[in-house]
Design a protein that fits this description.
29% of the residues are buried. The chain has one domain. It is built from four helices and two strands, in the order H-E-E-H-H-H. Helix 1 crosses helix 2, helix 2 packs across helix 3 and helix 3 crosses helix 4. The chain has a two-stranded antiparallel ribbon. By secondary structure, the chain is an all-alpha fold. It is globular.
Length: 137
């Protein structure tokens, strides 16, 4: 149970630092129109969008950590980046978008798909050092 809580915290923080940090850099470079750390409230609870995203990042952190925890060294980093890029992106594009009335798979827009893979891959890579930091304390 303690490991799951640490993985949740690592996923939550990785969303705020790595996912949103990369989004901010992409926004500054003019590659994405939307700014990072969106504080607009989202239904049904009216919590800031970025905190809602970070909550789901925490849930993904628990799942991804279970999949990569036995790996070591470079293999762990590769798995974290690849699984972090693919799994949350696929769920967002093929499940969440249609549920929100958005085009299935983002209308197959390559910029949107690549952006999702990059942001979620950065999130996955951020999970590894954060879990290491939490385990050492």
């Amino acid at each position: 149970m303690r490991t799951a809580l640490k993985a949740f915290v690592a996923g939550f923080v990785s969303t705020l630092v790595f996912h949103q940090g990369l989004l901010h850099l992409l926004h500054l470079a003019g590659q994405v129109p939307r700014a990072a750390w969106n504080l607009a409230p989202v239904p049904p609870l009216g919590v800031p969008s970025v905190l809602s995203l970070a909550f789901f990042g925490g849930l993904w952190g628990v799942l991804i950590w279970q999949l990569i925890r036995r790996s070591r060294g470079g293999r762990r980093w590769v798995l974290a980046g690849v699984l972090g890029a693919i799994l949350p992106s696929a769920v967002a594009l093929f499940v969440v978008f249609p549920l929100k009335g958005m085009a299935f798979a983002g209308g197959w827009d390559p910029k949107l798909i690549i952006g999702a893979l990059l942001l979620n891959g950065a999130w996955g890579l951020g999970l590894v050092p954060l879990m290491r930091l939490l385990r050492e304390r």
